[in-house]
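Sample pair:
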Amino acid sequence: MAVLRAELLKWRRSRVLLAVLLATAVSPGFNALLLWGAQRSSGARLQVPWFEFLAQVAMFAHLLVYPLAFAFVGTYVVVREFQEGTASNLYALPVSRPGILLTKVGSAAVVLLVAVVGAVPLAVIAGLPVIGRLPTLDETLRALVLHLETGLAQFLLLPVILWLATWARNYIVPLAAAGFFVVTNIATSFAGDDWLWIPTGIPAWTAQASHVQELAPHVPAWWLVLTPIFVVFLALTVAWTARADVR
């Protein structure tokens, strides 16, 4: 617990947390602008259900924003130790290297949880002027559950980035991979229903399928596809970190 507390204290002094929260606001703001533009074109207030709007916020975030935000957080918790020259001191602590790595994964999970949960009130604030009413408690809770579910699905892809970060020890390679995730997601959105099984896009399509019923049969269960990826790449990252020549 002491190591986890130390990791979380590092976040208190970091501007990265603020940057992640600002990134979280991109999708609510963008979707509110889209809805506002549609209302301007039609000349009337559109009757958009709150859950549909909040689900659309989650979809856009997982399609374009969260792959980069999650990757940056995962890369930061690993690479900063090598960039700042503190890795050797950290590995000298009476804690196993796998234990240190898992603690870093835990601290990243806490930060990302704050971002995912915070996206819901940010979306309510952004959507209120264009929807014209507050969401009901049921709509808010359903949206929160959806954001948590898809956030967990996105988190299961994080060990891919962690493995690249521990191997490369720089920001370029893992963030380039995250950029590739985004490009893949965009391509998937144009490729048709038969390509919705691609892992990087599953969190986004899970959010979209929550209110687009005809999409649901084409989206695989995220826990069946993404859990093996999480386990395999986390094991690879732990094994690489435990190597005696890693400094």
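The chain has one domain: 2-35+47-241.
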